[in-house]
Amino acid sequence: MGPVTNNPFLIAIINMIVVFGVLIVLGVLMHLIEMVDPTKKKAAPKAAAPVAAAPAAVAAAPVVEDKSEEIAAVIAAAVAACGGSENVVAVRIAAPATSWAVGARAEAQTVQPFC
């Protein structure tokens, strides 16, 4: 077996050279793929000045009822019924969330605390 080094600094330097060398090669490869990307949309030729059509009648935006007071009252009643009202400082009604956020909230409520 050939010479083996036990110097941790030399091992770290060799590992860093390998890691950053691979990252540089991957970066160059990504730029090459980006330049010859067959899925990139081609720029459409610009047409002459478009003819302005008569503006269509704008539909009225649907009226959304503000139920935040009712929701806050329901939350306050639920907290009071559980007997934990001394720990609640504020209630914030979250905007409609994505499925990721809903899943994270559900998991946070079902996972047992570590302490």
UniProtKB/TrEMBL annotation:
NCBIfam families documented for this protein: oadG_fam
Location in or out of the cell: Cell membrane
Source species, domain of life: Bacteria
GO-annotated cellular components: plasma membrane
Annotated keywords: Cell membrane, Membrane, Transmembrane, Transmembrane helix
Biological processes annotated in GO: sodium ion export across plasma membrane
InterPro entries: Na_pump_deCOase (IPR005899)
Transmembrane segments: 12-33
GO MF: sodium ion transmembrane transporter activity
Protein name, UniProt field: Methylmalonyl-CoA decarboxylase, delta subunit
Cell membrane as UniProt keyword: yes
